Amino acid sequence: MAYPPVEPGPPEAIYLDHAATTPLRPEVAEAIALAAARAFANPSSPHAAGRRAKQVLEDARERILTLLGGHAAGRERDRLVFTSGATEANRLGILGTAEGRPGLILCSARDHLSIRSAASERAGQGWIMADVPLAATGSLDSESLTMLLDQTRPGPRLMAVTLVCGQTGIREDIAAVATEKARRPGLMVHADATQAAAWEPLDLGGSPFTTATLAPHKFGGPRGIGGLFVRSGVAISPLVPGPQELGLRGGTEAVALAAGFATALELVTAERADTAKRVTLLRHRLEAGVVSAATQAGFEARVIGEGVTRAPHIATIAIAGTDRQAVVMAADLAGICLATGTACASGSSEPAAALVALGVDPRLRGGAIRASLGRTTTTGDVDEAILRLRRIFERMRP
Hints:
The chain is α/β, with parallel strands linked by helices. It has eleven helices and twelve strands. The strands form three sheets. Strands 2-8-7-6-5-3-4 form a seven-stranded mixed β-sheet, with helices on both faces. It has a three-stranded antiparallel β-sheet with strand order 9-10-12. Strands 1-11 form a two-stranded parallel ribbon. α2 runs parallel beside α7. It is globular, with a radius of gyration of 22 Å. The termini are far apart.
């Protein structure tokens, strides 16, 4: 009896969207399971089981603060508020400090929508919201920043900075931010560190930041939890009132996820230097291969941010004459997980705001795709992705 031929299955997936989220590390899953079994009680309960859960929660908080270079004990103790994720932490960092009489809020096109929407919310309540232009390097334009801060306006001043742009991977020039903070001791600075924590040390205790956001799912940790670092002495109001989290975030804490958060940060801190070096080399390999494949197919291609300081993991490649959504969909069918930009803006027909602010030619930014690598990415993944993309570009040849 003749059997029909076996239909080939879908190609094995190559995951190149680590900037959106990363796989949960086995060690983290184990830490979460252990905490869930041993510390399942409500940490606000006064009985022994509740006290045990409280101890696990506070141990995780202290471990994280220490790894971030914060003060975890003593009179100058910094605070770490556990949230549901980076979006809530960003909103708490902006809305929680932009309280009282109206003042000035500065942000930029690099900032996450959660920051910009929070700033816009305060603008509707009398605050002045101003955009800081980007320099050619992709960082905040220092001259414009100084000019905006020098303008005589009553009230407090708050600025948001994104340490690593989720669209381009370009790092912020923190020295310029520190200079402005030193000139104006009352200036509040909120830092979005979600894309930075996996790739560079965050000495928050010695930084110019008053608040900073983290999300462990960006470095092998769990989803459903984030953190807001709050410097000692900084006044902040809760968005969700309640007695938990030092009165800064109501609701029963996710003890097991906090334990996973701490474990993930410990692991990434120990491996950071070696992983960053390896992933940087892989990113260069991927960029060169994709640009070559696109060029051979007759397209103009350019790496966004090439030649400036970037985090190791993000490669945004603009391919003129293509539609970024079409390329990402074709890549998905070929078994490659790519993005057109940040996950929260995926599917948007509008070009990435950071690319517009950088002055990228519309011909190029319309075809800008983002690949982001991680700890689990291999040379084989990169080479196979280049091969599959080469076939896609050949089919799309103008």
